[in-house]
Amino acid sequence: MIATTSTIDDLIRNKNPFAGHIVVRPQQIWGKSYPDVPLINAHASDAVFNAVEQIRQGKRETVGITITAEKGLGKSHIISRIRHRLQAENTALFIYMGKYDNLNQIKSQFLQTVASSLRAYGSQELMQWQEIAAALINEAKKCKYTPQQYINGYPNLLKNSPRIIDDLTEVVLKIKPEITNPYIIRAILWTLSNPHAQYATYWLSGLEITQIQADSLGLPNSKNDDKEAEALSNVRQILDITSNYKVPVICFDELDIADISDTGFTAPQIVANLVKDLYNSLKRGVLLLSMYPETWNEQIRTLPQADAVIDRLASEKSDRQPIALNYLNSDNVVALVQAWLKDFYQDNQENPPYPLYPFDENKLKELGKGRPTLRSVLKWCAENFVSPLNQDDITLPPPVKMPSQQLHPVKAYFDNELANTEASIASLMEDEKTIGDALQLVFRSLIGETLEGVEIEAIERIPNQEHIDFKIVGNNKKVKIGVDVLQQTGGGSVTTALSKLIDYKKFHLTRGCLVRSKKINRGAALAQQHLQKLLQKLGGEWVLLQPLDIKPILAIYSVWDNRNSYELTEEQVFDFIQQNQIAINNPLIREILSDPSGQEPDNLTDDDLPMRIPQSVSIADNIVLTL
Predict the structure, then answer these.
(1) What span, in angstroms and rounded, lies between the C-alpha atoms of 431 and 553?
(2) Which terminus of the chain has fewer CB atoms gathered within 10 Å of its CB, N or C?
(3) In this predicted model, what pLDDT tens digit does every residue of 474-495 receive, in sequence order?
(4) How far apart are CA 556 and CA 554, in angstroms?
(5) Residues 512, 561, 199, 609: what is their CA dihedral angle, to the nearest 10 degrees?
(6) Would you call 215 exposed, middle or buried from its count of C-beta atoms within 10 A (0-12, 13-18, 19+)?
(7) Helix (H, G, I), strand (E, B) or coil at 365
(8) 162 cis-preceded (ω within 30 degrees of 0)
(9) Cβ proximity of 96 and 30 under 8 Å
(10) pLDDT tens, 324-368?
(11) Residue of 280, 276, 284 lying closest to 249 (CA atoms)
């Protein structure tokens, strides 16, 4: 039944499916994606699918593919398409890297990316780590249990055979003699135990776990001073293990950034050299990069030994050239808009008078004649999504502003990012770097304001150290608060971070502020000494990090971080922060500035609680392994 146009027009006035959704974010790559038209730039995604199939058939071992396109042409849409089809077909493991926070430690960051990506659900609605663990046991024991059967049966196995992980590790190592670090196998096997999986994957990412966790899992924290070499060795072994069962597709996105490493190389150049190393060492896999054409021409082609790098980054094509995306044509524009509207009306249980309602097909085709980008089409739709009563006002570009009340240009993007933040807050709470950067941004918006008795004059980075995120300078430079977001659990990492925060003389501080949601292990004696010195002797503060307080700050930071893609200015973002009092009324911001209490906060989470094994399990879920 077709709904009345008045009902649909009410819907159109209140909801705009295009507003705030013109840029694909990692959440759309891993979760529910935006509507896709597979025929648009199918040559690019098909190249990846064909490469995966050739590797599965043994015709190729490793394939490098680089996609180039101008801003807004749809590079990330293609990557989202690839991820979701591979997930549906269960033919590959997908690994995605889109942030490059520390170019000087790119291998460690890549290891963390691999571990994080494999935590994402595969086709069986389980972590990809768990799929790998089940495959390892099945191969070693010649079994055919599913990952879910192992997960259901692990409680009984661990209860009845306390050495089961030791025994399984030994059995698996017999069929994987090339694995030089047996603890990698042990950690992967632990992922099948729900109470232990989080800590095992944290360890697999190269991060330190607490001593209680390490003892429980039998996984030693690394003592290797060369973290980069160790990270590369471990990531190679992990990828070799995974490639025995599924083809790893490793994607490097969002490479067009201006950051430069201490060695003078840009982010695309650093990643290109990493990809070259991976290409040379992997048993099999697809290495996918996306970038602007000028990035390829000005940064990749100018590398030392550029030919060797290019041979690996574009090995899919005989001419060793990237795959270029095409601009949209009239048919593409119509198909794209129709796909978005189909989802929109289905989600709202409405049946429109015609599929493109409220748009006019001829106007969409006319838009396509200008060879638009995908982003510009979605932006045009967002600005012209009005009922047919207003269609006569629409002209082709520049877009007409919506006749309804004018919203702040940041509003739709903020709402979208806030929803994304809500969906991924558990993982974001562990992302110290992003939280620190987000806090620094909103404090910058407060420069010139007086809050909690502090007139904020400047927000400064402290060079040549990695722990104190930033410094708040105020009251004629009499107040200098060093802020450190610290979510790691390992005693060594916590001790090192606190040792920096209490060094007021070296870092020119009058107060140290620890931002953290977790308790600090009472058994970490030196860390406790530093903490008590901070709180009791130096007048420092421990501020509780809570999801409710940090969500809007993370959301507006995501908008700011993507402001170029959203075609916003920094001034617009700051104006939105001020108008909506995102910073000035946030309890976390006020607590950082307020007079210290000298006490540990209440409601801290306890990461050192024993990892309890469920004792009840259905008989139907029991598994039998003869060791």
Answers:
(1) 13
(2) N
(3) 999 999 999 999 998 876 789 9
(4) 6
(5) 40
(6) exposed
(7) helix
(8) no
(9) yes
(10) 999 999 999 999 999 999 999 999 998 999 999 999 999 999 999
(11) 284
Neighbours of 612 (CB within 10 A): 8
What's the CA gap between 506 and 498, in Å, rounded? 14
Q: Is 451 helix (H, G, I), strand (E, B) or coil?
A: strand
The per-residue pLDDT of the chain, averaged, comes to 88
Q: Which residue has the tokens 């606190």?
A: 498
Does residue 393 register a pLDDT over 90?
no
Q: What angle do CA 91, 96, 98 make, to 5 degrees?
A: 160
Closest to 391 in 3D by CA, of 368, 350, 361: 361
Sheet of strand 247-252, all strands in order from the earlier edge strand to the far edge: 92-97, 247-252, 285-291, 62-68, 323-324
- Name the β-bridge partners of 515: 485, 543
Written in H, E and C, the secondary structure of 182-224 is: HHHHHHHHHCCCHHHHHHHHHHHCCCCCCHHHHHHHCCCCCCC
CB 89 within 8 A of CB 212: no
Residues 510 and 478: beta-carbon distance below 8 Å: yes
Mention every residue, 6+ apart, whose C-beta is less than 8 A from residue 625: 137, 141, 143, 157, 164, 168
Instruction: Please compute the mean of the pLDDT values over residues 438-445 and round it to a whole number.
Output: 97
If pLDDT is split at 50, 70 and 90, which confidence band does 618 have? very low
Task: Work out the percent of the chain whose per-residue pLDDT is above 70.
Answer: 92
Confirm if 77 and 374 have CB atoms less than 8 A apart: yes
Residue showing tokens 């891993």: 30
Residue 540 pLDDT > 60: yes
Rounded to whole angstroms, how far apart are CA atoms 622 and 627? 16
pLDDT at 123: 64
Residue type, 429: M
CA distance 610 to 55: 43
Cα 508 versus chain centre, distance: 34
- Beta bridge partner(s), residue 513: 483, 541
Question: Does residue 286 contact residue 65 with C-beta atoms inside 8 Å?
Answer: yes
Name the pLDDT band for 399 (thresholds 50, 70, 90).
Answer: very low
Question: In the block, which residue shows the tokens 């911001």?
Answer: 589
- With tokens 């409220």, the residue in question is 358
Which residue, 81, 71, 88, is CA-closest to 125?
88
Q: How confident is the model at residue 623 (pLDDT cuts 50, 70, 90)?
A: low
For residues 282 and 286, give the distance between their C-alpha atoms in angstroms, rounded to a whole number. 10
Report the alpha-carbon distance of residue 270 to residue 105 in Å, rounded. 10
Task: Give kind and range of the element (H or E) at residue 432.
Answer: helix 432-444
Asked whether the beta carbons of 492 and 503 are under 8 A apart, the reply is no
